[in-house]
Amino acid sequence: MTKWTVKLKVVLALVLALVVTVACGGSSAEPVVVEKEVVVEKEVIKEVPVEKQVVVEKEVVREVPKVEVVESEKVIEIEKEVVVEKEVVKEVMVVATPTAAPPPAEEKQFRTLRVSQLANPIQLSCWFITGVDELDVLNHVSEPMIRFNREGALDNIVAEAWDYESPTSYLFNIRKGVKFHDPAYGEITAEDVEASLKACYKPEGQTKGRVPPPLVNHELEIVDDYTVRVKMPAPGTAELPNVMSAFGFITSKKYLEETGSWPHTEQDGFGKAPFGAGAFTFEEWVQNERMVMEKFPDYWGPDPGVDRIEWRIIPDAFTRKSEFLTGGVDVLPFLLPEWQPEIAANPDVHIESVLSSRFVFVVLPVREAPYNDKRVRKALNYAVNKVEIAEQLFRGTGAIPLTGVTHPFLPEVDPDRVGYPYDPEKAKSLLDEARADGVDVGKITFMATNDRYTLDKETGEAVAGYWREIGLDVEYIPQSRSVLFPPGIGLELKVPWMIGNGNALLRASTPYFYWLEKRPEPRSRGDYYANGPDEWDDLIVKLSATTSGSEESVKLARQLDELYTEYAPWVFLVNYVDLYGVHNDVLWKPYPHEYRLFLDVKFRD
Amino acid sequence: MYQFFTHRFLQGVVTILIVSVVVFVFVHASGDPAALMVPVEDATPQAIQEMRERLGTDRPLYVQYFSFMGGFWRGDTIKSFRYEEPITDVVGRAIIRTMILAGGAMVIGIVLAVPLGTLAALTRGSILDVIVRIIAVFGQSMPSFWVAMLLMLYISVKLQWLPVSGIGVKHAILPIATLSFFQTALLLRLMRSEMLEVIHTDYVRTARSKGLREFVVVYRHALRNAAIPIVTMAGLQLSGLIQGAVVVEPIFAWPGLGFVLVNAIFLKDYPVVVGGALLAAVLVTVINLLVDLFYGYLDPRIRVS
Fold it and tell me: Which residues contact B119 (CB under 8 A, 6 or more apart)?
């Protein structure tokens, strides 16, 4: 019996050790980096830029930067040894997975940028966009016609020029000579643009829901090989720049057909292997681990400053921060405000910040009592100390107080607007006035998400606390977005609830379109919740038809902002400041639209 | 023995069935995946209903259950809601990686616990014994997520000896160390107590009285007998290690079963959650069955009872 025990123990240990060894090695397809010590019982081929060829047998001559090519007659196993020179001269030997395949013809010295991602994307196509994780990657591989830059202005990308012809028509000139990643697919033409845009908004996709109906139902007229006209069945086209920038990525019609992604979704192969004419080619996606892309040498635009981008999927916040501090990732998005002291104390890294396109607010159901009384709505606004939320909760760097509807970075914003400064006495007095007129304020049920926005649960707690401070009876219910948003956006809630607005929505008309404009069919959120005066809708339509930043746009946006701020359909809370941790050897500035674009990133030499 | 095996096998089947029902019901009670999958801006009741129809979650729960289970056991291709890949691929990849961690932790646990526990028992009351007992108490009382964060903070961030996260041999060390912490502590205590019991038995005393060297007494007579429960416990603990991996893997971004399941739970990816839980249940049941059989083989009293 004891013999059996010992035997079993030995066998178990051996089997487990074998499993560990094999599986760890086997699961990593990438080369394993070791430091110098290599016991060479095999014949080794060294590759460095070739100046001369020397035949050596059974020994490795390590003369850097001299070059030897070892030829072998009896190849048992080949190892590839590459000398990589970095800023600090350091030799690293990359031992390739044993293989009988010949070594690559050229040595490539990659400069890889590593960026952390929150989650494994579901797929990488423009018709299945569920969050920025997909868009971050897709933007580098397959580009849009136009794209918002850091200043909130539109840059021409695949489009060389575009023209707003009428409220229902845009004309786009396609850039000539934009090559796809594979020469077999040629260059971008009008046919590719047509197929790509139709694929992005295809009925079975998810993206169509993010796009205003007139744009989903657009017609695309091919004027010539390099000109297309986008025609909408109805006005309401002001969101076109947003849509084209955020959700319309151009790829090859032929590739879409070959991968079963268009015209019908048969296999949707594009989503696993995106393709386009962007600055980077998509190389690898190891599920739940990483996505890798490499610089496209024939890219039409400026040469990107890195050779490779590796998106590392690290869901845990503590792990992301640790990876960043140890150099495992170069750029750390979604840096939490409370991490700042630790990040700031590290001399190798720094924090980049940008005023985000996202703000959060409390939606008030204006049709319901007591929120149908403007004094109550204003009191709820005056009661909340937005400055304190920004200073304490967001540590003075993660957010700024929100004072109106127009995003604070837009040219349309009135720099002098003050919104609702913290004034609890005024709030109490407004409530007293309302009560004197018979308004029953009663118990307030207030809902917020606990898993959607930075510090959303805590912000909700703060708001509830401020309301209690002025004597209100508040029940605060934080919950998952999957529970709160469906009834909220499905027009079912009759209580105040908190939500954010953002993601590349860089036009003054956007929050009005999504949250305040009254439209009967399908019923809009503006109609269900805000219920503003009908005449203001005309102003919104006019604002939608203006050119962003124009004098008329500024005038209309400020007028609407003032009207709706006074009307108080929301409790204005904070506008986020997006924080990024960046290693000191990386030169990069973030964008306000929450997408991580690394087209102009550079490594410090 | 045949009857014993049949009995245990049937118990395993019933366990898996119960697990499948419980997991299925609880996962479906946790929220609507359709609501989560439709983008926020598009989450109209109609859009959510369309998504439910597409996912098949609009059908009665019992229909969904039998449809899923039928497909799962027949080996049909059941796709993940999120990844649109067969769940066998998603979970299969992950479970191998989890077994790497669990296996590694098991090996370390045995390798450390057997000699240290033996030494502690032989030198009862000594400083070594006290240290071993302290380690055992700490190891069993510290939650694994905390151990993981401490190891990451000191070994990876402060000392920079090992990578923080990812896949590879070096990357596996910290998660294995985390998992083995509890495992080692448990086996250490067991080994020590078993050895204390054995070294006072008559046959050990007889061996000593024969004039055998102490090493021979301990190794041949005491250790072999004291180690039997260790083998059993180690086998049973393998299932505990798989559970522990659910906590440890997301922290180290090790894409094993725990990592995949936690993600799937947050994304309400029912097929992956249920499929993963089922496969884990099958694995644990099989391990327990093998341990039972082995123990039954070792000790006839068990299979008779």
Answer: B128, B132
Segments of A96-238 assigned E as strands: 112-117, 146-148, 154-156, 159-166, 169-174, 219-224, 227-231
Buried b (16+ CB within 10 A) or exposed e, A206-236: bbbbbbbebbbebebeeeeebbbbbbbeeeb
Instruction: Give the position of tokens 């009896």.
Output: A74
* Burial label, A335 (beta-carbon count in 10 A; 0-12, 13-18, 19+): buried
pLDDT at A2: 45
Whole-number Cα distances in Å, A479 to A336, A394, A482, A497, B270: 20, 21, 8, 11, 20
Chain A residues with beta carbon closer than 8 angstroms to that of B107: 13, 16-17, 20
The per-residue DSSP string of A9-53 comes to HHHHHHHHHHHHHHHHHHH--SPEEE-S-----S-EEE-SS-S--
A579 DSSP β-pair partners: A353
**pLDDT confidence bin for B70, thresholds 50/70/90:** confident
What is the ipTM metric for this complex?
0.75
Q: How is chain B split among helix, strand and coil, in percent rounded to 5?
A: 80, 0, 20
CA distance B293 to chain A (A): 13
Average pLDDT over residues A138-156: 88
Counting beta carbons within 10 angstroms of the beta carbon of residue A551, is it exposed (0 to 12), middle (13 to 18) or buried (19 or more)? Answer: exposed
Tokens 């694995």, residue located: B283
Rounded to an integer, the average pLDDT of B22-39 is: 74
CA distance A373 to A154: 41
**Considering only CA atoms, which of A342, A364, A395, A311 is closest in space to residue A574?**
A395
First to last CA, chain B: 11
- Substitution target in B89, B167, B248 with the highest count of A β-carbons within 10 Å is B167
Q: Which residue of A has its CA nearest to B101?
A: A20
Q: Please give the pLDDT value at position B150.
A: 93
pLDDT tens per residue across span A423-460: 999 999 999 999 999 999 989 999 998 878 889 999 99
Digit-coded pLDDT (tens) for B90-125: 888 888 899 899 999 999 998 999 899 999 998 888
B124 Cα to chain A: minimum distance (Å): 25
Q: How many CB pairs under 8 A join A and B?
A: 172
Residue contact B37–A13, C-beta within 8 A: no
Q: How much is the pTM?
A: 0.75
Report residue A76 CA to chain centroid gap.
Answer: 48
* Alpha-carbon Rg for chain B in angstroms: 24
Res A41: pLDDT: 38
Q: What is the structure's pLDDT at A84?
A: 38
Interface contact B97-A27, CB threshold 8 A? yes
